[in-house]
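Can't paste images in this forum, so I'm doing it all in text. The chain is below; anyone willing to post the predicted structure tokens underneath?
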Amino acid sequence: MNDILGLMSDLNSDTTSEIDPTASLPTRWIAATLCIFYGFAKLNGSQFTVLDSELSRPLGQVSGFWLTWYYFGYSAAYGTAIALLQILAGILLVVPRTALLGALVLLPIAVNIVLVDVFFGVDLDGTLAAIVLLGCVCVTISMYAPRLKRAVLLDATPTRPTVRALIGLGTVIVTGFAVTWWVANYNNRAPTKIDGVWSVTAQSGRDASAADWRTVFFERNRAQLVVFRTANGVDAAHDFAFENGHVRIWQTWLKKDSLIMDGHQLPDGRLQLDIVPSSGGGTLTLQRVSESGRRAR
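Text version of the structure:
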């Protein structure tokens, strides 16, 4: 109880007279105006909307800006939530008593906006506006730095982690790195020389009712996964293995149950896949379009 009373006394001793509520008024109004405008822009549909001409592009050809716009606009509920938070933060910034609360609500949003704008290639005007917003938020928060320091840096004993805690933390960090590295490089990936995108250049000996495969994806980021795509965009996922130029494809990914194709790599680099009779028979000839991880141009 004494600790609580002491903390309340410390906070009360940091009276509002120590902080001039008008000192950050211009920056608070700039930030509030930007927030409210951008919030209503999302609600009224002038942000997070995507052009039909961009929606028709293959994903690998979409620019960072439109990819971001589509991602954030995909969920109307998410966009509305961000918009309402921006408007609420703007209102809180204007009121002296709630200015710090508004700035703290807005800080992670503003930081994320700047990072997205910079790394995803959003236009310069939008990036500059986001930087101005973040700067105004930081100025507002800096006015209350002493209070925040006392609240964040607790007066705890001991002030430093124990040796056991450091060993435990180090173990978690090393284990976390090792496990996720293994998942990425051995569980998710099992690279082969044929990983990438291939075009079906010829189909022979197949029934007229057979699927019209146009593109084949030997996936690098999903070990043993191969995806066949028709002209209509219908996909079929299978399991594959490639050893010493020999290609085998099974019906179900990661199960290696029924063998459906057995082929090899030709001297000129193309792939010839012979479909087993039980799966309809015939032959597919594939030509590489791009290697895995590279965008087709």
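Confidence is low (pLDDT under 50) at residues 1-17. The two ends are 68 Å apart (CA to CA).
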